[in-house]
Every structure is written in structure tokens, then in C-alpha cells.
Amino acid sequence: MAAIEITANLWIREEELIERSTRASGPGGQHVNKTSTAVELRFDVRSSPSLSEEVKARLVALAGGRMTKDGVLILCAEGSRSQEMNRQEARERLFALLRAAAVRPRIRKKTRPSRASKLRRLASKSHRSAVKSTRGRPDPSA
To answer: Has residue 22 been placed in a domain?
Structure first.
């Protein structure tokens, strides 16, 4: 049972990853018609024992359209002509998503502006108002 380290305290088992090779689309001539170089990587997020519930929720949010209704994350890689390079690319993308999901977002603390900053803001507003009021057409009676 091999384990893959994502972060210092997040590991997933090798058995949780399902890889499938398919034929890549796009240009490539005869090579693309003969070889299965594209890699489709599937990771069942919902039934993964390696992830906590909060990491799963953040991963589902990050994955977006790459997540199926059954909770399976699907990543396709077909950028390279080598199957091994596409496999590595798909795995790295999955690991990057998992690292991003593992980071707990900081809770924003509400702050109020200080009295001095309010006074500075009002002073600058009145200064701008004074500058703008001097502009315009001259008074014809003067």
C-alpha cells in the first residue's frame, strides 16, 4: 500500500487514483492515431478516507466543472506525446488542487476605521471640494 505525500500532514493512497489511457486529439499524424498517449486521471473525492470533510468541501469548490455528480474528480492530460509525461502532468495538477484545498482560509476580522483616519478622509474631501468649486465659468457681473 503505497502512499503519496501531498503536504506534511496530507497523504493519499496510490489505490485511490484510477488512470486510463486514451487516444489524444489534435494534430500528430499517424502517431496520434496509433498510440494512446492521453491520460485520464480519476479521484473519488467523496469516498476518499484520506481527506477530511472540510478538505473535501474545499476541493469540490475548487474543482468546479471537473467534478462529476458522483463526487469523482476527472483530470485529462494530453499536452505531451509521451504517455508518461501526460501521467505526470495529470498527477501534478491533482496534487496542486489538493494542496490548495488543504490550506484553511483565514477568517477575516472586522475592523473599524480610526477616528483620525475618518478626519483625514473628510479633510481631503473638503479640500477637493474647495479646489473644484474654484473651477468653472467666471461670474459675468464681476
So the answer is: yes
Task: Please give the model's pTM, rounded to 2 decimal places.
Answer: 0.70
- Written as nine digits, the cell of 138 is 467666471
Residue ranges making up the domain that contains 43:
3-102
Q: And the C-alpha cell for 139?
A: 461670474
For residue 38, being part of any structural domain is answered with yes
Task: Name the grid cell of 24.
Answer: 489524444
* Cα–Cα distance measured from residue 38 to residue 20, given in angstroms and rounded to the nearest whole number: 8
CATH number at residue 13: 3.30.160.20
Cα–Cα distances in Å, from 92 out to 27, 41, 86? 24, 11, 10
- Quick one: pLDDT at residue 118? 97
Give the pLDDT mean for 83-98: 91
pLDDT digits (tens, 9 = 90+) for 15-59: 888 888 888 777 666 766 777 888 999 999 888 888 889 999 999
* Residue 130 domain flag: no
Residue 63 included in any domain: yes
> For residues 72-85, b (16+ Cβ closer than 10 Å) or e, as one string?
bbbbbbbebeebee
